[in-house]
Amino acid sequence: MKALTRSASPRCVLFAIGTMVLMATSACASAPATANNPMPQAVAAPAAATPPRVPLTTVESLRQLIDNHQLTEMRTTYNSTFGASLLFRPETLGYYVVLFHGKEFWRVMQTDSFDDAESLYRTFVAQTQTLGQVEIDTLRLDAGNKYAEHMISVNEAKLRSLQQDANNQQQQARQVAEAQEQSRQQAVTLSSDLHNTNAQLDAVKQQIRALEAMQANPALVLPTPAPAPASTTAAPTTTPQQQPPATP
User: Fold this and answer.
1) For the whole model, what pTM was predicted?
2) What CATH number should be reported for the domain whose range is 58-132?
């Protein structure tokens, strides 16, 4: 037992010394800095880890390709504000099929098969027809209502113009009727005046013809003397004396 203790004693001592040295080193590293115990040299902090790169979405990737002019437009169909496009990327022989509304990409699908791209494109076109029909009908109905309102306004203005024309015509008709009545009365008066004037004209013509006939007669025609006026004093009546008969 003593022999075993002696043989093991140097190993135990070395182990104990090593343990003390490690403990002392750890104590120095963890001891706070003081005037008598300077700050140990700082250990360099590990570099900050770079966050993993977030992959772009299909829409963002498509926009980036469009901005970089890396896509070729093969087909595009519009139905109102909805549309579908088939785009080709020559670098990768890939296809992008897009369904958009206005200026916003709604759905974007990517494929390397042209047949699949064509099928997707036809599907999106059919969807644009269904979606755009509502807007087209609304646009047509709105335009129809506005046109009807415009035509109502135009026809109301035309109706007012025709009513004004009718009023003017009626007023003109009344004025013409009054003028006609005045002219009719004036015609009756003028007819009577003309009859009298013609009678005077005939009398003047008869006098002219009588004078012309008198002037055309070569015989001397003396005027008949006027009878003497009757005397107002009675003349004495004389009785004729009887003559004696004559002797033979």
Assistant:
1) 0.46
2) 3.10.450
